[in-house]
């Protein structure tokens, strides 16, 4: 039994929260209204598979490679849900999705560094 360590779950929770804020703040740059509910739904919808993969890979370490495939699936969900939830055109999504994913990765890396220094990961 190898549970997912608390710092990993904690960093995921922070990434989730800060990603929601970041996406909420950049929506006006893509001619979309700031809508907290829609930005939260977008982040929740696209990040849930990654959280489940982290939990299952912690419980069953042989499933660790599952995270990579689920990551690609989450990007696909982010692309689809940006059109369905936020009503964004394809032209705007072509910039919005990569920029949002870059912001999420930067947030994750910064929090990983900070939490890694605190918890000595």
Write up what this structure looks like.
The chain has 121 residues and is an all-alpha fold. The protein is built from four helices and no strands. The protein has helices spanning 6-26, 36-59, 66-84, 90-119. Helix 3 (66-84) packs across helix 4. The longest helix is centred in the last third of the chain and has 30 residues, at 90-119. The chain is globular and about 40 Å long. It starts with 5 loop residues before the first helix and ends with a helix. 16% of the residues are buried.
SSE blueprint and pairings:
Blueprint: H1 6-26, H2 36-59, H3 66-84, H4 90-119
Helix pairs in contact: 1-2, 1-4, 2-3, 3-4
For this entry, give a set of tags.
121 residues; 4 helices; 0% strand
Share of helical residues: over 70%
Alpha plus pi helix count: 4
Computed Rg: 15 Å
Percent of residues in beta strands: under 5%
Quick description:
With 121 residues, the protein is mainly alpha-helical.
